[in-house]
Specification:
Elements (H helix, E strand, L loop, with lengths): L15 H9 L5 H5 L5 E4 L14 E15 L6 E8 L4 E7 L4 H4 L5 E11 L2 E5 L2 E4 L12 E4 L8 H15 L8 H6 L5 H9 L4 H31 L10 H9 L7 H14 L6 E6 L5 H14 L3 E6 L2 H14 L7 E4 L5 H4 L3 H5 L3 E5 L2 H4 L6 E6 L7 H9 L9 E6 L5 H7 L4 E5 L10 E4 L5 H13 L3 E5 L14 H11 L5 E4 L5 H12 L5 E4 L12 E6 L7 H8 L10 E4 L6 H12 L3 H18 L8 H6 L3 H16 L7 H16 L1
Parallel strand pairs: 4-6, 9-14, 9-15, 10-12, 10-13, 11-12, 13-14, 16-21, 17-19, 17-20, 18-19, 20-21
Antiparallel strand pairs: 1-8, 2-3, 2-5, 3-4, 5-6, 5-7
This protein binds adenosine-5'-diphosphate (ADP) and magnesium ion.
Adenosine-5'-diphosphate binds next to α10.
Length: about 675
């Protein structure tokens, strides 16, 4: 029977109750189980002499049962099993509470492997309810005496149970047919899948585990890269309108700007303009720190599109940002004879019923991401730009393809993000996109002065804040959550704004969070922009690109709860004028590691540096948040390994070149499943 089909209830020891509990953690079949990887390991492979036992220390011993008996506690009638275990160096008492069946299982003379913390009781040094396992020549140890796997579990399943089931499963289902081509396995000296599964659950030694981990990381990255290459191939087969470079007109346009483009902006613009000239659609991601000037680069691409007689669509995540973009572009193109149209939820239905002429008329259409639904109404779109989007690419592109309506060609697609993505990470996680990075800020920007404020200095900080508010400057306060959850003791937006009203009587304080209606949020942001609010207390919704030059102070509560990249994004909300701006970080966390991490923010203003640092310190999962969840843990750890990324990329390209996929139905199947996941997400 193929292993996919063996239900978990076929295993020895799985009844209805346990099957239900396993279902909670997504395990239905034996196959599900063997792909349920440990969250951690404990190395119990080194056996210590009993003589080395020390009160309060963990010990890992092997010895024979000298004596064993059961007693009942006087009051509760609880069974207490008492044993004495001896090795060549000494003996130790072992006690188990309330496990009467042990009396049946363990006999004098049995050899035991034990691990637990040494206590001192009235019999001397003792182990209380240690992990134990009988040593026998015919059975491999799985709970002790080796590197022992630990799994994330739900209530009602014990580590011992799942290890027992895992061992059974592995012996029942292996060998599993490997989906990696043998060429790849041998070229990159990888473990075969079967051996890797053994090594990840029950490694023989450290080396075996490392090799197993490398194999699983490799396959995750390799499949991701192959998938990216397949998407690239698909795009290369689509046709897009060729948008010839209007070099002179663009130079003329750039010369009217009140500033000089940075070199990084020039490079990015050049790459984009070259893409637009091609006959297949562009699929590019423009990455640039907050304030690095992505909009002007986008504007150049839009201008070139308009000059070619095509329409450009620009989408922003919120209506406020769409309005901001509209104002910016109207100013930028004030002297050009072009029509710019803002398209929001307030745009009337009648207006959206376009006449034939209108469909071709606006040169630039600006709206929120919802505009994606409407874009097919315009007949002449050559370029679609999506601003401040975290997860982009595949899904939007698919949408464009399906909703192309009257379009016979695919538009070019440019996504923009201020999330600093390290280059190697981007290669792996967004391999289907071409990437341009603006890694340079326009000259003359004042760094945002950033401080980690010690707890006892809060009052002083508030006095300082008061002075700035009196001077007419505005403040953002960021809290991790909306409502107080007493168990966590984490600052909430609603409690904090009440508290601040007490601290700063007469100061105009409002709050903003994700559960508010869109129009409500817009109104608050409008008031903030108009200077009618002094302190805005907000959750992380403030993260995305709003420009309020008069806001000069950013205060972040429980800063340890955020990743560095995200904190850096918050900080980017201030420092948008020639006034000095400040960012104050508060935290209750004491650990040196946390303080060091937050301290990095006070020393660097470079988003990419901070992101690299975060990637090393906290891993990819933390850095890229829940948006990336659903990935295997080995995918996330693999993203921290630039060399492995290069290697798998090379392997994937080779596979594409040699058409290897078609020879390996299992690999093909894996890719199809993955592509489907991406489209469905
Ligand atoms: P972001 O990359 O965060 O979207 P914007 O495009 O909003 O940044 O640019 C931030 C500000 O910097 C804008 O006011 C823009 O006009 C200005 N700017 C852009 N490029 C330059 C430059 N090369 N020199 C000076 N200022 C610039
Ligand atoms: Mg922007």
């Amino acid at each position: 029977m193929p292993i996919n089909d063996i239900p978990i209830t076929d295993l020895h020891g799985v009844g209805e109750v346990l099957a239900k509990r396993l279902l909670y953690i997504g395990i239905k079949t034996v196959r599900d189980l063997v792909f349920y990887f440990p969250r951690d390991y404990e190395d119990l492979s080194v056996v210590q002499p009993i003589a080395a036992a020390q009160e309060g220390e963990k010990i890992n011993i092997k010895g024979k049962i000298e004596r064993i008996n059961t007693q009942r506690t006087f009051r509760k009638r609880m069974a207490v099993i008492q044993a004495r275990v001896k090795d060549e160096t000494g003996a130790l008492n072992v006690v188990w509470f309330n496990q009467p069946y042990l009396q049946e299982q363990l006999k004098v003379g049995d050899e035991l492997q034990l691990s637990g913390v040494v206590k001192r009781d009235r019999y001397g040094l003792s182990l209380h309810s240690p992990v134990y396992e009988k040593v026998s020549a015919s059975r491999e140890l799985i709970h002790t005496g080796r590197i022992v796997p630990k799994y994330s579990l739900t209530a009602g399943i014990t580590q011992k149970q799942i290890r027992y089931l895992m061992k059974q499963s592995l012996s029942r289902v292996l060998p599993i047919a490997d989906f990696l081509p043998p060429e790849i396995v041998s070229t990159y000296s990888l473990l075969a899948l079967t051996d890797a599964l053994r090594g990840i659950h029950f490694p023989e030694n450290e080396m075996h585990f490392e090799q197993a981990k490398r194999r699983l990381e490799f396959e995750e990255l390799y499949v991701a890269q192959l998938m990216a290459q397949c998407i690239r191939k698909d795009i290369a087969q689509q046709t897009a309108p060729t948008l010839k470079l209007h070099e002179q007109e663009l130079q003329q346009f750039v010369s009217t700007l009140p500033f000089r483009l940075t070199n990084a902006q020039r490079r990015a613009a050049w790459a984009i303009l070259q893409d637009l000239e091609k006959t297949h659609p562009m699929n590019r991601l423009l990455v640039g720190d907050v304030g690095s000037g992505k909009t002007i680069v986008a504007a150049m691409a839009m201008w070139n599109t308009v000059l070619c007689g095509k329409q450009a669509v620009l989408m922003a995540p919120t209506e406020i940002l769409a309005q901001q973009h509209t104002q910016y572009l109207e100013k930028l193109f004030a002297h050009a004879d072009i029509q710019i149209e803002l398209w929001t939820s307030r745009t009337s239905k009648e207006k959206k019923q376009l006449t034939d002429i209108q469909k071709k008329h606006p040169n630039i259409i600006i709206g929120t991401h919802a505009l994606l639904q409407d874009y097919a109404r315009f007949e002449n779109v050559g370029l679609v730009i999506i601003d401040e989007q975290h997860r982009f690419g595949v899904r939007q592109r698919k949408f464009l393809k399906e909703h192309s309506g009257v379009h016979t060609m695919m538009p070019h697609l440019l996504s923009m993000t201020a999330t600093p993505i390290p280059r190697t990470f981007a290669l792996a996680a967004y391999g289907d996109l071409d990437i341009s990075i603006i890694d340079e800020q326009p000259p003359g920007r004042k760094p945002v002065m950033t401080r980690l404020v010690p707890r006892e200095k809060r009052i002083v900080a508030y006095r300082w804040l008061q002075k700035h508010i009196v001077n007419g400057e505005q403040v953002f306060v960021i809290c991790p959550i909306i409502e107080e959850s007493d168990t966590l003791g984490v600052k909430s937006v609603s409690a904090e704004s009440l508290r601040l009203r007490d601290v700063f009587p007469g100061v105009r304080i409002e709050m903003l969070h994700g559960k508010m209606k869109g129009t409500e949020k817009d109104a608050i942001m409008e008031n903030m922009r108009a200077g009618k609010i002094d302190i805005l207390v907000s959750t992380s919704v403030i993260e995305v690109g709003v420009d309020i030059p008069n806001a000069t102070i950013m205060l972040i509560e429980d800063a340890d709860r955020f990743g560095l990249a995200q904190l850096h994004q918050f900080r980017g909300r201030v420092g948008r004028s020639n006034k000095q701006s400040y960012c104050l970080l508060f935290t209750n966390a004491q650990s040196a590691k946390t303080v060091e991490r937050l301290d990095a923010l006070t020393k660097s203003q470079n988003g990419f540096q901070l992101a690299e640092y975060d990637l090393k310190l906290r891993g990819a999962g933390e850095l890229y948040g829940t948006a990336q969840s659903g990935f295997s843990p080995y995918f996330l750890t693999s993203l921290q390994q630039p060399e492995l990324i290069q290697e798998t990329r090379e392997a994937a390209l080779k596979t594409m070149d040699t058409n290897l996929i078609t020879h390996y139905p299992l690999l093909q199947e894996k890719l199809n499943a993955r592509l489907l996941d991406v489209h469905l997400e």
